[in-house]
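Follow-up to my post from last week.
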Amino acid sequence: MKRIEVKLSVSVVAPLLDVLKGLAYEASSEDQKQAPRDIDSEFRDAWNQELLEHQKTDMDVLFGLFNEQFFVDGSIILDPTNAEPVLRASAMLRLRLRETVLGDINDEDLEAGQIHLETLPDNVVRAFMGYLFLATIQELVIKHIEGKSDEA
Amino acid sequence: MIIPLAKSNPSTETQVAVQTQLSGSWKVVVLNDPVNLMSYVVLVFRKVFGFDESTARKHMLEVHEQGRSIVWVGLREKAEAYVFTLHQWHLSAVLERDEAY
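User reply:
Got it. Predicted complex:
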C-alpha cells in the first residue's frame, strides 16, 4: 500500500470524532463473551486483557490520524504503518455503535442504509454518520491495500 | 471419552482429563455479523489464513448467507490462536470440536 493523503471536511468530521472517542476505550460486554467457554478463568482474563490492550493500541493509531494538521486543512495520512490498525479500530467502533446508539435500528435497514434521518434524535443521526464515515475509511484503505485504487 | 491413567494420583487424572478434553481436531467457525463490510471480511480471511481471493470470498459468502463458515480445522492450540487473531480483527469466531475426527 502506498502512502495516501485524504482531505476531509473538518466541520463535518470533527463532531463525529467526539461521538467515536466516547465509545473507543470502553470495554464491551460483547467483547467479554468472546473467549472460548471451556478455558479456565485465568486464561480467559488474559485473553480479554490482551484483546483490550490491542484494541487500545489500534484506537490510538486511528485517532492519531486526526492530529493538528487535520484541524488545519482536513488532511489525514494513510500508509502501511497505520492501515491495519485503522481497519481494526474502525470495525470495532462500528460494532460498538451498533450495540449502543444504533441498537434500535434493524439489521436490514442499517445494512442497506435505509435510515430516515429526519425521524431520529440528533445523537443517533451523529452516530449513524460516524458509522458511515468509518465504513468509508475502511473501503478506502482496503482498496489501497489490494492495489485497486485505480478503479476508484 | 476421559480415561484416567492412574487412579491413585488425582493430579495425573486431572491432567489426562484436560488433555483428553482438548485433544483431537477443532474447527474455527466464523459467525455472521450485520456490521462488518464484506470486503473487510475477505481481507481478514486472506491475511489471517493466507487464502486466495476466491477462497476468502467463498468463506465470506458462507458466513453472510448461511450465518457461519468453518475456516480452519486442526489442533486445539493453533485453532485458539486463530480465534484470538480473528477477535483482534473484531470478527465473531468460535471454537468447535470436530466431531468427524
